[in-house]
Amino acid sequence: MSEKEPTAPRSGERITIREVAQDAGVSVAAVSKVLRDAYGVSDALRAKVRASMAKLNYRPRASARGMRGRTYTIGLIFPDLRNPFFADIYAGVNSALERTQYQAMQGVNTTSGALNITSGALIEAMIDRQMDGLVVIGPNMETQALADLGARLPLVVLGQHNHAGDAFDTVNNDDQLGARLVVRHLVANGYSNIAMLSLSPQNSSIIQQREIGYRLEMMEQGCGDAINILRETQVLRDVQVSVRRLLSGADRPEAIFCWTDLMAFEAISVATEMGLSIPEDIAIVGYDNTMFCDLAQNSLTSVDQSGELLGLQAARLLVERIDGRTTAEHFMVPPRIVARASAGTRTEQE
To answer: CA 268, CA 247: separation in Å to the nearest integer?
Structure first.
């Protein structure tokens, strides 16, 4: 038999188990045994088959999906689990799935930097496990990468304001309006020198919309000269250092708008350690209205974006996608301010 040229992966086409067998120079049955991790498969055969699978970018789901049908599992991908707001989203998803056959499996994406389809190991792992669809929360991905993912399986993205035709559904809070509501609330309570503690790197459409809302409302309220956006990572130690530097400066702001409650709690902690009174010396506002806002030591004014409702709608849309809907839907939750003591009326404090 003459030596054949290596088979190159075909972009956009599904690789079959027969092609893997041909590339590896083994039988289809042998490839099947490797896929099933069957007893009696030698290490040499396993290595040869897996090398061909990797070269051809073969995924077991690609050939098995039509024959095996649904698995009644969906994947949830969170950016992290430190933020208590994600627990609200998860509760909403589970509530939506209670009367269905579906089970939600969650994963946490710890990849730093922008994800794409080739480097998203967690996404590929969920696809390999034949999830019927995915809900991706707060993705650190380009819109085109999300569109490519949506072409492979039903997809709903929570926290993504950029659309891509009918490739995927989105569920969002009106983040620009939410930031505007914060500035309006603070100005109405007597604050004008309002800083914003935002996120770095700034590659999330959520962050972009909140910063836009903050800037626009500061200008409309006549506070444009006081616009001050401080961007920091989600590493709590970095947040603490940045807040301490901000509060130690000669032009200490009257109020800080934090892009998430998690950062706001750290800001409260730092301010307290520095001997500052809240809100007499510094007002603090968060975003998410998580359960810890109500604790007396926090009493944090925050933007409620109905995390449970966001999760519920994401799950609903995904099941509809799995059932065959192909036209994209984009669900938007209106935000509201929940006022507490951390941003009380300034004129009453003086």
So the answer is: 11
